[in-house]
Structure formats: structure tokens, C-alpha cells
Amino acid sequence: MFESVICAIGAVLAVTGFVCIVYWLMLRLIRPKKNEDYFEVLVFDGKEENASLRVSFLLTRLLSTGSIRHCRILAVDNGMKPWRSAALRETFGREPRVTVCTPEEAAALLFEKKD
User: Does the pLDDT at position 2 exceed 60?
Assistant: First the structure.
């Protein structure tokens, strides 16, 4: 009886360690190689119904991997309905890493020169 409890505890610890190693390897593959700033661009057209959800998922992924420090999210409004665009701007208006913009503004942000 006592041996089976010890074996069960050992098995749980081994599985937990294996999951931690896999998670660490996954994070190493997902993160950018350098500590340079980069953009994640999401383009939303008139057919998009869950733009806020997609931005939220991306923001959550970046926060969970620690990549948010070097990433800026561009949510490009490429023909969304005005009320959806306004809702997206209102939802992420206080988030400094999310910018809701037009395609022209996105091009200006992507190709601006840094000093």
C-alpha cells in the first residue's frame, strides 16, 4: 500500500516535470530570437465578426509567453463596419501595445525609420 502511494507520487512528479520541460521548449520556439521590437498584424475586413476576440487571444498569448515587451499589435481596419471599428477602439483604447488603424496608418507605422 505504502509503495503504491510513493509510486503514484513519483509518477505525478515525473509527468509534471515532463510537462514543464515541454512548455519551456515550446516557449523557446515561439519567442523571437532577438530582443528587437516587432509587429503582429491582424487585418479585419467587413466580414469579421469577432475582431475583439482575436485581438484578446493574441494579447493573451503574448502575455503568457513574455513576448509582450517587444511586440506591438496592429489591428488594421480594412473595411469593418463603423460600429465594430469603434467597439474595437473602445475595447483596446487603454492598451498601449494595441493600435487600431487604417491600412495607410499601418503602412506608416511599419515602415517608419527608427533613430
Answer: yes
